[in-house]
Amino acid sequence: MAHVHVILNQKGGVGKSTLAVNLAAVTADVLGGPLGGGDEQPPVVAVSIDPQGSAVWWSERVGDGLPFDFVQAHDDLAGLAALSRIPSAQHVFVDTPGWLDLAEGEGADPLGKGAAADALRAVLSNATDVIVPIEPEPLGFQPTQRTVEKVVKPRGLPFRVVINNWDPRDGKADLEQTRAFVEGQGWPLARTVVRHYKLHTRASADGLVVTQYGANKVALQAREDFFRLALEVGLAAIPKPARRKKTSRTTKKKAAV
Fold first, then answer.
1. Is 130 left (phi over 0), alpha (psi -120 to 50) or beta?
2. CATH of the domain at 143
3. What is the pTM of this model?
4. Structurally, how many domains does the chain consist of?
5. Domain extent at residue 161
């Protein structure tokens, strides 16, 4: 069974695509190519259910250099309901769209109705965990609160909030305010902060994922954030068990002597 990691926040523009694609990239980098070589598929898959398809365009720009499989599946409910059963996959990262909270009254589903809502429900029914990105600005606090309290927690899903796109040049006031907000809610907060770099904003147009950046200081720092985050949330830490080699009777007898 694959581990399905859903990148989720009601607010658009908080970096869900960037996190999904680059976490998939660093996880693929750690796990290597297809298990056993040959014609097997990569052990990491990125899935987008965002109808706008920004991650689709990004993956097309990377082309054959993409180190993981990519699927646009916003209209494939049957496929989304079976994400954890992709035969080759160890890890599946799902990029999701923002949405409007149209539900009214207690007990109503905050995801609302329609194709996008159905896709979100299908993905969450398969989720191993949820990563909730938040940018260090107050406008994102309420949408994040609705995401966690109305969607994630009622489903009993493990989750972690990640502060994304913090620009160190702006100082630490906004960063600390965002940390205080998350901690005040009692939510688990990642120690790793994904910093703002022009490299990240240019990556899709340049046809690069984070593991393909150059070797200069800024590129190494940008890449480090994603490796640290992947390590912190335990990605690539649970590989599929290796196939056991058959042991001959002679070998067993020698071992017993």
1. beta
2. 3.40.50.300
3. 0.86
4. 1
5. 3-256
